[in-house]
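thread from #wetlab-drylab

HS: before we spend reagent money on co-crystallization trials with oxalic acid, can we at least see a predicted complex? here's what I'd submit
DV: go for it
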Amino acid sequence: MAILLDTDAEADAWRTALAGLDPTLEIRSWPEVGDPREIEFALVWRPRTPDFAAFPLLRGIFNLGAGVERLLKRRDLPESVPIIRLVDPVGLTGPMTEYVLWQVLRLHRRGPELEAMQREKRWDELTYPLARDRRVGILGQGVLGSDAAARLIALDFDVAGWSRRPKPLPGGRNFAGEAELPAFLARSEILVVLLPLTADTAGLHDARRFALLPRGAGIVNAARGGIIVDADLLAALDSGQIGHATLDVFHEEPLPAGHPFWTHPQVTVTPHVASLTHAETAAPIVLAGIAALRAGRQPADTVDRKTGY
Ligand code: NDP
Ligand code: OXD
């Protein structure tokens, strides 16, 4: 039996990492699929494979990243085949936490204003609150949000998390569900978006939700562009309701050259690099998932197709 590797990112690194762990693996790189009846597992990121239903003995599809919204939109995913997303503490969670800490600290210490002052050769001692008095809100208290929240709490920030179902946040406060969103937003001076893009979260941040934040709040979106309504964010930036937006993800990627985010003075753009999959740390996790499925067990990070994450 064979593994289909269909990724448009780091395909060579994946082959090397997988072969290094198990030289007996038969890895078929798309489009060299061979006999479709021999494909047992598919390892994919932005797959070009036109039809997963063409692999009659497929036992699992491994998404080589955390977000599965693009994959779940496909109509050819066999119902009975589990989809497993990537949870990689070292290679994916750690770098995302670095990104969140970097951007939250930058907003907390008024980095964008200091950078503008240097460009203008202007000297002014900008003040800032103590971390314990800075209220940070993490939308999405999952794998990535929980780790970032714990590190911010360790730095003494006043942190709250928002999740679909109530769950503890040691050293911070959890808000859950639609009903508690207004209270969560009202206390979030710096808002970090780490939600999956689903039917429930698409367009969640519109003018109405921006208006609930404290005036001048900062936003860091490291999740998916579709969670934010761009036109409403631009209006909130221009009115001063939002002080600064740091955006790693966009409705359309690469961000089109003419998009106002590129040049807006209160927007920082990073090109979807908050956390990149690392094949060398992710490959053993994927192989452990394959071993679990072969042993008749469901891997922990199997996607719930109903909720969309
Ligand atoms: P998880 O599935 O572990 O966590 C998702 C969190 O969002 C959970 O806390 C969940 O609540 C919450 N949530 C989902 N839907 C809702 C809702 N309708 N209302 C309230 N809360 C909700 O995901 P990860 O932390 O692993 O990843 C989050 C996202 O980050 C990914 O989906 C991906 O899009 C993005 N990402 C971006 C990267 C980048 O480089 N920019 C890199 C990696 C990921 P509950 O706990 O109750 O289930
Ligand atoms: C992911 C991503 O979902 O890279 O892993 O955005």
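DV: The chain has a mean pLDDT of 98.
HS: ok that's useful, forwarding to the group
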